[in-house]
Amino acid sequence: MRIITHSPQETIDTAKKLGALLKKGDIIAYKGNLGAGKTTFTRGLAVGLGLGDIVTSPTFALVNEYCGEKLSMYHFDMYRIETEGDLESSGFYDYDFENNIAVIEWSENIDGFLPKNTIYITINAVGDTDREIITEDGGRFDSAWN
Description:
Elements: E1 2-5, H1 8-19, E2 27-31, H2 38-48, E3 63-67, E4 72-77, H3 84-89, E5 101-105, E6 119-125, E7 131-136
Parallel strand pairs: 2-5, 2-6, 4-5
Antiparallel strand pairs: 1-7, 3-4, 6-7
């Protein structure tokens, strides 16, 4: 599915719809250049999951965790991860993915280590505030875009 948003708020609102449909165990893998809007989209996912809108980039922390009553969302930045050893030493495998949601920026760096049911979202800047959002989810979230 492909959608164009025209402002950061519209990107957040779009992601909120998808966030409301996420289930425990979902893994979202982002593709997109620096400044494309991955963290903005993650803010919308968090709101849709009922986790609030205080979301920041995990660039220097490697992972930010947003806790809710029923589940948490782990927001990873894999920009500096180059090998499986890097991934393992980051603590990535210590998180409870089965009962929570994972959102991964720079997923290209760990693509070979992600499960087959990973949901891929590509975000491209196509203007100053316009974003092209492409989901590869087997049609699971088609209702979010209607």
